[in-house]
Design a protein that fits this description.
Number of helices: 0
Strand order of the largest sheet: 2-5-7-6
Number of strands: 7
Order of helices and strands: EEEEEEE
Distance between the termini: 22 Å
Helix content: under 10%
Shape: globular
Oligomer: single chain
């Protein structure tokens, strides 16, 4: 088991992650892009997962909230499409 970092590029990001990856944090690193950190088992096969990013005051996408990231005056909320 290890921790991997995934950048979220846009309102919808599809990520290849090892099966069973568990998102443990959403945030920013160096004020670049909203980022997820996940516990993964790299020996497992990869699956495609879809994540939506929305701002405070915007519509909530369907899915499960996995975290929120604060960057200056903005807070971005991350939802994963239900599998």
């Amino acid at each position: 088991m290890t921790i991997w970092k995934y950048e979220l590029r846009g309102a919808l990001t599809e990520l290849e992650m090892p099966f069973g990856a568990r998102v443990i944090h959403a945030g920013y690193q160096d004020n670049a892009l909203p980022t997820l950190w996940a516990e993964v088992d790299p020996s497992l096969p990869s699956v495609t997962r879809r994540f939506w990013v929305t701002g405070t005051g915007h519509d909530v996408p369907s899915g499960v909230h996995v975290g929120s990231a604060v960057c200056g005056a903005f807070v971005w909320h991350v939802y994963e499409e239900e599998q």
